């Protein structure tokens, strides 16, 4: 079954019918927001059933949009989140990615500013490496980007999309070795992005990010995962009581090849390892249960089929 | 920016120049300094790296007195009745009046009027001349703050100056030799028509 990521937006009234429908069709609801009278469901649904959901949602005032980034967790890395730059362009970047369905985390580096003194520490590096992709929101000058970027990317092995004010060609020219994606024309600015040309740059950025993630998905498809992250999320939500006790908007965050479970590692890691998915296969068989660098969360890295010889 | 008589950004990178022109005008507009700054020349060279801003400020019209924003009339009982035209300076005016006459002698029946019960023999019209604020105060601070925000964040080593309507602000990531800074500033000040 091929899943497509969608966002359903509609009213609260009878939205549970849509929830049931998605579940009955075998889809997964990755994230559910209730904002006043509105409901936003980020979900992965079978490709053939998108039109059915659209048809059933229509009388309820719901709309279905394809959201290419549902089920991904993206780090928005900014050399600094200081008051100096407010209103911050990385906020617009993060917000735009969120609209496309991604779960974004802002990573403001402790010593990322300045071209000579810029630094990336071990904790920051490991946090960024826990994501599916990192978007580096850099500044206005080619000279500075060229000089500081090698430091800021040191040890990062997830795909990188870099943004900056110089045009994409200039970014491509100055960055060596190349990164996965480039978005030019978007650097430090001291106003909210609202002009049409700025918004189209943000759209281009979302496109670039989804292109890079599609490449990553294609790469993973060559050696498929032992269990789909969305499925594993559902199992954890059903069987681990503790995830319902936390107040995070996404207690279990889905990534392309993993999950972040927002409960303390020291207490729950062992239970999670022995949690049964199906016919004797446990979470520990198909995934590595690791302590996350974010607070004391648990990070699951799902192993590929070639490593486990199990497919559930 | 239309309100500035001269506004120029100079940079070795064309894209950076465009962006910094936008940033400078955004910051000056946000901090309400467009009417204060008369001329502004910014020079950035990220290769050194150095950021220089030089310019001149306008005279901001001297002290603000009560007559500038309120009408003062005497009523038949000898009280001074102030009708406020612009609320900007209302709060500092009230604190000055409280301090001078005592809180129990000041009434504010509604938002735009203030009644002062004067001691016997005092001329109600004299209230008009009371100084409420000095716009020059804090101008230096605001201006330097704005330039600091405009400059790239990593440029932490800096020198600033404001006197007699002329200002300059130099910032860099590294310590720069004094004579280089001075020649650079003098050269850029010449562009706005000033010699220090």
Structural account:
The complex is a heterodimer of chains A (312) and B (196). Chain A has 312 residues and is α/β, with parallel strands linked by helices. Chain A has 11 helices and 15 strands. In chain A, the strands form 4 sheets. Chain A has a 5-stranded parallel beta sheet, sandwiched between helices. Chain A is globular, with a radius of gyration of 20 Å. The two termini of chain A are 14 Å apart. By secondary structure, chain B is an alpha+beta fold. Chain B is 28% helix and 31% strand. A 5-stranded mixed beta sheet of chain B has the order 1-2-3-11-10, sandwiched between helices. In chain B, strands 5-6-8-7 form a 4-stranded antiparallel beta sheet, covered by helices on one side. A two-stranded antiparallel sheet of chain B has the order 4-9. In chain B, helix 1 (14-30) packs antiparallel against helix 3. The mean pLDDT of chain B is 88.
């Amino acid at each position: 079954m091929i899943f497509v990521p969608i966002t359903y937006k509609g009213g609260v009234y009878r939205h549970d019918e849509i929830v049931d429908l998605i579940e009955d069709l075998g889809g997964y609801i990755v994230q559910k927001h209730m904002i006043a009278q509105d409901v936003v469901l980020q979900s992965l649904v079978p490709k053939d059933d998108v039109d059915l959901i659209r048809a059933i949602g229509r009388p309820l005032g719901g709309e279905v949009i394809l959201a290419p980034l549902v089920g991904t967790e993206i780090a928005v890395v900014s050399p600094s989140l200081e008051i100096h730059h407010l209103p911050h362009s990385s906020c617009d970047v993060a917000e735009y990615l969120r609209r496309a369905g991604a779960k974004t985390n802002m990573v403001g580096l402790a010593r990322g500013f300045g071209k000579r003194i810029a630094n990336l520490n071990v904790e920051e590096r490991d946090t960024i490496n826990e994501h599916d992709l990192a978007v580096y929101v850099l500044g206005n000058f080619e000279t500075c980007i060229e000089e500081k970027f090698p430091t800021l990317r040191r040890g990062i092995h997830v795909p990188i999309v870099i943004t900056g004010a110089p045009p994409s060609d200039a970014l491509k020219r100055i960055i060596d070795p190349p990164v996965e994606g480039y978005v030019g024309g978007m650097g430090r600015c001291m106003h909210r992005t609202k002009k049409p040309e700025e918004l189209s740059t943000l759209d281009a950025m979302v496109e670039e990010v989804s292109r890079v993630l599609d490449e990553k998905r294609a790469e993973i498809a060559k050696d498929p995962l032992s269990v789909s992250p969305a499925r594993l999320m559902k199992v954890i939500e059903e069987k681990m009581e503790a995830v319902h006790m936390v107040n995070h908007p996404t207690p279990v965050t889905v990534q392309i090849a993993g999950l972040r479970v927002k409960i303390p590692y020291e207490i729950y890691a062992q239970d999670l390892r022995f949690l049964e998915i199906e016919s004797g296969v446990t979470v520990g068989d198909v995934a590595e249960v690791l302590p996350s660098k974010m607070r004391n969360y648990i990070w699951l890295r799902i192993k590929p089929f070639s490593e486990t010889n199990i497919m559930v | 920016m239309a309100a500035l008589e001269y506004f120029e950004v100079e940079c070795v990178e064309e894209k950076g120049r465009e962006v910094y022109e936008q940033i400078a005008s955004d910051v000056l507009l946000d901090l309400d300094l467009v009417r204060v700054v008369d001329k502004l020349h910014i020079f950035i060279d990220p290769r050194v790296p150095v950021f220089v801003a030089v310019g001149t400020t306008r005279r901001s019209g001297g002290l603000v007195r009560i007559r500038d924003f309120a009408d003062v009339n005497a009523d038949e009982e000898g009280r001074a009745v102030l009708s406020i035209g612009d609320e900007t300076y209302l709060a500092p005016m009230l604190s000055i009046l409280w301090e001078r006459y005592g809180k129990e002698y000041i009434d504010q029946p509604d938002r735009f009027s203030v009644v002062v019960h004067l001691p016997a023999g005092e001329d109600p019209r004299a209230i008009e001349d009371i100084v409420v604020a000095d716009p020059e105060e804090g101008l230096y601070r605001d201006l330097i703050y704005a330039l600091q925000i405009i400059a790239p964040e990593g440029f932490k080593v800096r020198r600033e100056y404001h006197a007699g309507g002329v200002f300059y602000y130099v910032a860099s990531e590294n310590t720069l030799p004094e004579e280089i800074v001075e020649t650079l500033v003098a050269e850029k000040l010449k562009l706005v028509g000033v010699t220090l």
